[in-house]
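Example S7 (structure tokens).
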């Protein structure tokens, strides 16, 4: 998990060769701007109505956390297999995710003394899910992934088969892309509706 740890402080201007056009647009803080844009695209994908209406993720605070976590995990897996500076992108993207979780807790009125404890639980949940999904995704194990997703995303022992098919398809699609494509256009996820009951 060290590759996806929460650290930062990289000189992306020197690391990211070939990104001159993008960097010229955001000279003040190109790294932060690109990471913020990438994270926004992941968050937007996790709010697709089809994830809730077609794939059965509960449209609740917990369900939205599960959807965001799943999409983050899928993108981090893709970045893990790409050449540098993809590892640096993964670290900063993970940092953006936890900063967003921290800000959300504070917006909900969670007190300063309680936030660290809540954030520890969120981190444990996130990395626990990443570990639980990693094996089935590596092995294209639909049943194993459906079981893990059922427990986490549905909160039940019923397998999340349609969601597992969606995640497997997304994993393959993301891993087929390049770092430049991810940074230029953002991660492209399948349409959830295609994996719902009608498309299953």
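Recovered sequence:
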């Amino acid at each position: 998990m060290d590759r996806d740890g929460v650290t930062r402080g990289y000189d992306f201007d020197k690391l990211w060769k070939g990104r001159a056009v993008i960097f010229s647009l955001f000279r003040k803080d190109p790294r932060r701007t690109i990471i913020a844009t990438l994270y926004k695209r992941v968050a937007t994908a996790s709010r697709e109505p089809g994830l809730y209406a077609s794939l059965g993720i509960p449209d609740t605070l917990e369900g939205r956390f599960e959807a965001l976590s799943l999409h983050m995990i899928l993108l981090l897996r893709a970045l893990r297999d790409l050449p540098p500076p993809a590892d640096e992108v993964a670290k900063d993207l993970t940092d953006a995710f936890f900063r967003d979780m921290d800000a959300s807790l504070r917006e909900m009125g969670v007190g300063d003394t309680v936030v660290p404890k809540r954030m520890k639980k969120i981190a444990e949940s996130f990395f626990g899910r990443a570990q639980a999904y990693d094996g089935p995704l590596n092995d294209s194990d639909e049943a194993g992934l459906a079981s893990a997703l059922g427990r986490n995303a549905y909160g039940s022992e019923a397998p999340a088969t349609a969601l597992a098919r969606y995640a497997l398809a997304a994993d393959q699609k993301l891993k087929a892309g390049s770092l430049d494509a991810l940074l230029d256009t953002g991660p492209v996820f399948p349409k959830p509706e295609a994996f719902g009951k009608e498309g299953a």
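Notes on this example. The longest helix spans residues 115-138.
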